[in-house]
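Weekly structure sync, notes
Attendees: PL, DS, HV (note-taker this week)

Item 1: 6-phosphofructokinase
DS walked through the input record. Source organism listed as Artemia franciscana. Sequence as pasted into the shared doc:
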Amino acid sequence: GQAIAVLTSGGDSQGMNATLRAIVRCGLYAGAKVFFIREGYQGMIDGGANIEEANSLSVSKIIHKGGTIIGSARCNEFRERSGRLKAAKNLVGNGITNLIVIGGDGSLTGANLFKKEWSSLLEELIRKGEIFSIENTKYSCLSVVGIVGSIDNDFCQTDMTIGTDSALHRIIESIDAIVETASSHQRTFILEVMGRHCGYLALVAGLATEADFIFIPECPPEGDWQLKMCEKLSSHRKAGQRLNIVIVSEGSIDRNGNAITAEMIKNIIVENLNQDTRITVLGHVQRGGRPSAFDRVIGCRMGAEAVMTLTEADPEKIPCVICLEGNQLVRRPLIDCVKDTQAIQKVLNERNWEKVVRLRGDRFGP
Ligand code: F6P
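Item 1 (cont.): predicted structure, written out as tokens:
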């Protein structure tokens, strides 16, 4: 049978455990050995007890848990070739020729590079006498499949990433709670939500909670936005609203690329409107806790699809990402997804806002 290894990397997200469960159970069903690699890429580099064979029981009673039971890390060492060389040695040492990476943008970019370098990493290991050349034939191909686990929903070519839906549930539940206290005191609240350079969480949470004003990185406010915002907030109050809610995505910027922070927004509101204003930074509560039904189910589906991709006949598979399109799972070339995702970052840095919105496409709607 084949040996499939799975790791979770980067920021954890709700639904990663459901994904792990599906990978282990489907892998075993297909007659493969399944290995956990603990602590993300760092565990692959360190090897030893970090690489451990999993069984059916290893993934029992985890589907409802947030986080990832095999640990995750943001690993700088894997960015260096020397780190990837150690990682390759540990995979060969454990007889692993299939790798599933569950992670965000950075983690899947790393997976793509690892796959690209695989033959040259093996050659270097053989040259240095760290592995025997005879092993080269068996290990000459590493099959790589990516699954996007991230609350940010910032990865191209998939409609949703695992964790986003649960994070949204957490955010709107928190905002609903804030609305009650805000209304009692006739206050204005500024809520900072996560998402890195992607405004999806802020935008959708804003729509779902009737926010008065939303800041997202992809669409920096134009002109005298301070005045526009204040007019909007005060007009809502005049119309009888007892509170105001402003949602700011953590990566928000103005047209010159300067950060727009919750503190900044608060000062503008207090100075101009003299409203009793508070800031709530939701932080990591958005990332933990129980996964929603949606995240559990796409985790299961994507995990199973990843295993099927690896156990199908074709031996030299191009690395792919399991993506959601409509309600269908599709396999997309990893390299294309990574390129598109990096292109958005580039256009963001260039401050070409029209193009950013176009590239984000359907995700943001009209
Ligand atoms: O990528 C997920 C995410 O939660 C982002 O929304 C946020 O910017 C970042 O990770 C926080 O990183 P850390 O958990 O390392 O503080």
